[in-house]
Amino acid sequence: MLSVSRQLKNKIIETNQELRRMYPSQVFDREQLRDQLKTLGFFSNVEKWAGDTLEKWLEGGTLVGVDGSVNSTPGAHPHTLSLFQALAKGTRGEETWAADLYTPLLEEEEENEEGKLAREAKRRGSLLASLEIQVAIEAIERWKPKIIMMDGSLLHFLIDDASGWARLADAAITQGVLLVGVAEEIGTKSLARRLFSHSTTYSDRELLFGTLQREECYRSEAMDPPGTGLWKAVLCSTKHPQPVGIDGLLAQSEDREHLIQLVHTLTPNEGRGVPLWLDIVDREVRVTDALVRGMVEQYIDPDLRHRLLIPKRNDRHL
Amino acid sequence: MQVVGVTTQQEVYVASKERKFRINEILVLEDRALDHPRGEVVETLSYNRLIPMGMDKSVVDTQVIQSLEQIGYDIGSDEVNVAKVRLFAEAPHPIRTGVSARAPRFEEVRRLLVKADPDDGMVLGEIRGTDALGDTVDPDLQNRVRLIEEGEWREQQGVPFLFDIRTMQQYPHIGVFGGSGSGKSFGLRVILEEMMKLQVPTLVFDPHFEMSFKEKVPEWGTDAPDFADRWLAVQIGREVGIHFPDLSAKELVNLLGASGGGLTDPMSNVVQSLHKRRDSFQSFSDRLGNVAQAIEEGEKGLKKRVHEDGLTPTEVERTKSLLELLSQYGSLPLSSVKGVKWRLDRLEKAGLFTQDIRAVEQGLEQGRLVVIQGDTWLLQVFSTYVVNAVYRKRREYRDARMNGEEGRFFPPFVIVTDEAHNFAPKGVDAPPKKALKEIAQEGRKYGAFLILATQRPTLLDETITAQLNTKFVFRTVRGTDIATLREETDLTQEEGRRLPYLRSGDTFISSAVYGRTVFVRVRASYTHSPHVSNPFDELRAIRVEQDDQVLRVVTNHLPIFDTDLLDVLTQVNRECGSNWEVHRFKQELERWTSQGVIVKKESPFVTRYDQPLQERDN
């Protein structure tokens, strides 16, 4: 028997009831939701490209996947050190890397203690986004590929590093490189707001869960984030009920169908629904715990390392 | 290529994305602090981190991989090759992780791979994993061997394996181990061919009658050396035997013991008492017979017989001599006397005493390879005698030289036998065991060496196994034998694991000379065993031949009515030397009918066998 406190158990039961009240099954009825969604946009079937269609469409161009990764030493703020890495990897073996490092220990002490952690997190986010944008721009300039596929929605690049994004979008449009972002999680709320104006808690993710059939795509102008120059679609490529989000530039919207089809084609039937190429890039760029540990051990002097970076919890016996 | 992961003084892992590693290839690790240590790949593996294996991981469907391939992605490029490399010599401290590794140039490894002059050494095969050295191999080592791989002949690509027979002085005796079909007998043949090339006096005991070097392998053409005057085969009881008058009582005891499970004490007492120096077989056999008769009849019976009437003077003389024998040897137990006689007769019937070992000695003196053939039991008896005899001769010569005397020269020699576990079994006694053990232990002092082959190293006497300083290990499947071999050699765990999967003709050579195990492909032999034809092919060939013969006779007599069967059969039996009865003949006719060779025509009155062609004409 696991020793669980009665109090904790009751709290969990209560929470379940509350969640059920907020998300009643009758609201999240699949058919009903589909009908509602159809009022805002449309569902369409997507087929995988067969044979050499993909090759022809690419016209000899390549596909470049872009992903980044960050990981930190396990201490408490500000005793941390974060390593950033971004990689743009082309299918013909092209690779370009960028890396950065951040530690609050070397930052000027800020007067305002409040919201400090949130700012730190934002800083980390924007640092990573900038690195990814940097390698993406480099990839465009160096190899002029047919497509750049970013891990994560394009929207978040715009939010995290607006100026960098502007340069990337500009470069992509002028060089004729298609830009597409694939996001595992759908973070928008625009559909939910339109359909359930009474509730502020619902998000698009919850509405779209299980709503799409396999090999189906949903598009709606309501989803396109206004004023960003981006279009957005959701695609259910695999058996997984949670669809992925795809976004691209409105300026390149004539290739929208092709991009969705491309993402679908490159996604394994089993798995989480993200193109294998992005998984491959992710795998390579990932800053693992072992890498962080190894780098710190190798290059930070032992006294500094112990004084600043190694938390006591590492010495727990159990 | 780069050293990765945790390293030790003995082992490192080397990884490469571009290059696959080959087992047993040699790599140079560019650690300058350790003066570029060299090592051998003992284990290899490849993995692709994008194609994971595991119950919890989903399998990437081929469709996606194909799509990626279409846009230029080569999933193979994400393959990582890893090799476990064992250093030839232990380093004083672990190799630095991260140093690069490279394939060696030949001059960097010649010392490690070649331990003999190619013209003086035995050229036994090609060292596996050295193909990469290919063209850089010194010219004196090129084109030394040819090999057969998967039934195809190929030229030497790597470094030849040379065994310097002279190192036997320091590291005596060779063991050849491997299960049936592992290439053990083949390897032994190659070793013997090289011995003949070097004209080393060699004595081969051949229970399988397979050590003939007469039949050349045609593929070698004129490149094969001619062994005609380098070897001879002798059969016990035909060309060689034991010269009875040369036997001492002690040797005779050994010999009789060898012929069947050892002698009891009373039996050896019988031999000791009755055998006289320079006894011929006849005189000794007669004496045994007479003593037996004397004891059987007893003193009373014999005395009574002397006084019987009508005895011729010779008979009286004989009875008297029997009485004399009785008084002298009457105390010997009759059953033991008879037992000795029975054993002696058995050896005599096998022809053991009709010849001597002159042919063997002469062959050795001429530096030839002498193959002694005979049934296993007879070979055991004879080998005991002949090994003792030649070893004594050699020892006497060496001892005489040691004492500053001239002595009669007898050459150093090598004794070779297959199925050695029959000659020197562990635990139980066998006739030649004592002699072989003695040679194993101190033979090198006198220049007598052993090459023992067996498929059951576990059954071979341990003292002897321990003295085999070079071991050829072919494919071995039996767990206990693998354990024994690992105990007795420096085979590593990885190599032990590979043993059941070795290809026929591939062998690990664990030699004190090399100080490590070398993986070798045995070269193609110049000659082949007389037993190469498959018995089942033979069966079919004989059947076809017989059929043809009989059918020819039968066809001449067609049409045959069942009333003349007997006449035709007589003809068949006479011409074909067969011994059939009518019933059998009928069976064969039926068979040919069913095969359509002849046609059977039945009417109410008579059955007729005829030619099928004529039938059709009708």
UniProtKB/TrEMBL annotation, chain A:
Pfam families named among the record's database cross-references: NurA (PF09376)
SMART domains the record matches: NurA
InterPro entries to which the protein is assigned, alphabetical: NurA_domain (IPR018977)
NurA domain ranges (all copies): 61-287
Top-rank lineage group of the source organism: Bacteria
Name the record gives this protein: NurA domain-containing protein
Annotated organism of origin: Marininema halotolerans
From TrEMBL, chain B:
Recorded superkingdom: Bacteria
Occurrences of domain Helicase HerA central (ranges): 151-372
Name of the protein described by the UniProt record: Helicase HerA central domain-containing protein
Pfam families: DUF87 (PF01935)
SUPFAM superfamilies: P-loop containing nucleoside triphosphate hydrolases (SSF52540)
